[in-house]
Structure formats: structure tokens, C-alpha cells
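User: Can you model how adenosine monophosphate sits in this protein?
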Amino acid sequence: MKLVFFGPPGAGKGTQAAKLSEKLGIPAISTGHMIRQAMAEGTPIGKLAEDYMSRGTLLPDDVVAALAAERLQADDCEKGYILDGFPRTLVQAEIMDKTGILVDHVIDIEVKDEAIVKRMAGRRVCSKCGAAFHVEFNPPKQEGVCDICGEALSIREDDVPEVVLNRLRIYHEQTEPLKSYYKKQNKLFAVCGEGSVEEIFDRIQKAVSGEEK
Ligand code: AMP
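Assistant: Here's the modeled complex, given as C-alpha cells:
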């Protein structure tokens, strides 16, 4: 099962990918989380990323594609994977096709821009394991603490309103054209991303099993 979770920033890709990863026993791979980790560790990619990340713009395609390709070579990806936030441009999708990174289904989690802006204001993330919560819609068991690893939760620097608007603009300009790319390949499954975490998860499971298209 080789899946791509697609959708605007804040659509719930990370939350849903983590749930499906647990259920299917395949890893959820977030290029955004990998980049944030590289920044925390101060690696060359991390240093390069700082400027892009703070403005909400995309890193160069070859840099992200190389990062993802390396991760996908790990043994835990043999049975499949869920890609969250990659590919994000047509060039990235073409690099995947050329280098043999396979995709069976693309799950397009659809949420309107107005709802995204509201959601982002309440998002809290764990900088250690990457888990995402929402103060209202998906609160952690203990306020401000990650349910999974116990680390303190924080607000992502690119979740501030002006950067969110820029990320949405970039999504529409550079990432959304990928929908028709995967539609032509008959791999795109659209899922409504509004409602409770469980409701959306239910829809995703149906889409993955081919019940809905
Ligand atoms: P995310 O956690 O997926 O929202 O990603 C956060 C940020 O990481 C993005 O705004 C980009 O700056 C960078 N990033 C993550 N994935 C990609 C990608 N596939 N291509 C380019 N930049 C990316």
C-alpha cells in the first residue's frame, strides 16, 4: 500500500496519516517533519530550510526529493508507506515517477481555505515526534503535553496567520495542479476533510479500500 496524503496545509494530513500508519503497520513519512528535525539538529539541509520555512515557501524540489528518496530506502518502507506533504509540485511527482518511487492511491483531503485559517490558529505540534493536536478539535490528554512522547507542545512558526495565507497561496499555485496529474493516472480519491477526526478517518479508510472514488 503506497499512499500519498494530499491537501492544503492544515487539512489534517499528519493526524490522519498517523492513524492509518498505526492501523496498516506502514510508516507515515512527513517531509515537513523531517525538515523541522533537520533544522533542530542544525544539519546543512536544516540551515538551508530556515528561510523557506519561516516564509512558508517550498524548498527546492531536488533537495526534498533526495530527502524523501533516502528515507524510502529504509527497511520499514518495504511493505508500503504513507507520504504526507510529498510530492508538492509537478516536478517532484515527475522525479518520483522517473526514479521509481511508486504511488497506488492519492488521498486528497479537501478543506476550504476559511476553515484552514481557523484551524491553524489552534494547532499545536510536538517538535520531538511530530504529532499534531488541536486545542479544540483534537486536544491532547494533558494540556500542552504530547500524548505520544510526553514532550511539550508548541505553535509552529509557520502557523502564524500571515505565513498560513502564503502557504495556502503556494498550495493553490504549485501543489493543486498535481490533482489533475494523478486524476489522469486514475489514482486520485477525494475525501471531505471537514468533520471530526474519526469521521474523516472513516472516509479515508473507505477511499483506501477502493469503496469510494
Ligand atoms: P508541512 O509540515 O508539510 O506543512 O511542511 C512545512 C514546510 O516544509 C513547508 O512549508 C515547506 O517549507 C517545507 N516542505 C515540506 N515538504 C515539502 C516538499 N515536498 N517540497 C518543498 N518544501 C517542503
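A couple of observations from the model: The two ends are 17 Å apart (CA to CA). The CA atoms of residues 74 and 188 lie 26 Å apart.
User: Helpful, thanks.
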